[in-house]
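ok so heres the complex, two chains, lmk if somethin looks off
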Amino acid sequence: MDSLYFAICVVIYLGMVIYLGYRGYRNTGNRKDYMLAGRSAHPFVMAMSYGAAFISTSAIVGFGGIAGTFGMGIMWLTFMNIAVGILAAFAIFGHRTREIGQLYNAHTFPEFIGKRFGSRGLRIFCALVIFIFMPLYSSVVLIGGARFLQEMLNIDYSWALLIFAAVVALYVTFGGMKGVMYVDAMMGTIMIVGMLILLIMSYWKLGGVFEAHRELSEMAHLVPERLPEMAAAGHVGWTAMPEFNSEWWWTLVSSIMLGVGIGALAQPQLAVRFMTVKSSKELYRATLIGSVFILLVVGSAYMVGALSNVFFYYGDKGMLSGLASGQLAIEAAGGNKDLIIPLFINRALPKFILYAFSLTLLSAAMSTLSSLFHVMGSTIGNDLFLGMNKKSGSSVLAARCGVITGIVISILLGFVLPPGFIARGTAIFFGVCAAAFLPAYFAALYWEKASRFGVYLSMGCGIGVSLFGLFFLHRSESAPLGICQMIFGRTELVSTFPWPFVDMVIYSLPVSAIALVAGSYLVKNKAKGKIK
Amino acid sequence: MNFFLLGLDDIWVALAVWASLAVTLCCIIYGAVNWNHGGGKDGE
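and the predicted structre for the whole thing:
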């Protein structure tokens, strides 16, 4: 790709980001503005911000690459993202979160939980969970964005990391939630347009929807021939679900569909966005907009990822001008799943789509990162510093200092942690959030009998079981982390199939929920506040 | 049947595509039906 051309595009893009961040700064006058965009966000802005924060580069390139390798079974994640991440989230959690957040004048997720259950300790506990685990996720997104910039602009990785972090830091620190959401709205729009162009051009290139699907279906015989290890793991073709009860089936269903699909409900950076709107009307409208966003952005990535196999294989039909043909997508990408979609775009589609897609990926990374930085900042400044010290100083100043602190921690983690650990950051964060927060969050909205003790027990058990699973049971994390190997001389404690491939959320979430109910009945120190 | 399968060879994958489209339609209907609902003075 022409680096100069793209550099000009990026400069214009960043200029718009800085401008919108500045608008956020000018429109920020108090704590409510900085934390919750004044509780007056436009539904389009809220929906785009929610979607853009939800979908990061790993969702597009990472899971798109999984689709390219293992096929369209991952479309069930698209369904889960919309059914659970949008419809259930807004209809069941969103409206009540907005109402109760307003009732208790909560500005952050820990403050919401703390005030609802009448416990400063719970607020601090939630804040500590976010403070400890969110940097793992943010460092992953930060590094991904920096590596992307490094490749696209041909600059040193360290510079890419610092520039990327600095730009996001600027508009988050000064613009607050308004700056973040204005920029998200722009980025979300870019993401929709970019992915829609990609989807339409891909089907056009491959001869249409039915023809492309038919050709991909006919390639199923290549799986046992060319990918014997994946065939043994349950892969039967790119237009088919994996073999039931196989290794890949368990990974797809438990980790991807359920782990990521349900984990999205308890993400603090998403939950706080329900409190940024004035009334339920905005949430109803945002549900409509958000669902279309997820369908187009995520659905496109997965379909294109899988269909790229048709392009790379049928080279004899002249699609690949002079390049090696007869390859599967994963082969063409040299075994690196993350390269499948960028390679497909680069080889198959017009150059302008590569530019549009590059900005799409940059938008996905920056929007997710900004939401994480903002939540970390609010947590560190507002919940931990002011909360623990019982200070009533400027929350905005404290949050701004918190944002800077969170960014510095993320950058340091990016340099210090080994690659194997960093790659697990997303899984760890989603899993821990789901098990730690989801039962308590639901109880905060709907169960008046939930007690403080029950909530503490639930969060503690959720985190404990999640971490136990990560370190000792789930092979994808326990093997690279190496702690189980170090203590017990094996990669996981239970090797009996399918347990090494069962995601932690399958058992940590029920344990957390049971702990909440049991704890609430055992120790009835009911929350002082009421919920309508 | 062929149209429903969208040229795919597994009904479960075709179902994933249709289910995604259907749930999006549900969200659109949900948002459209309630488009002007809940915008009262006290933000209900």
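quick notes: Residues 157-205 of chain A form the longest helix (49 residues). thats all i got rn
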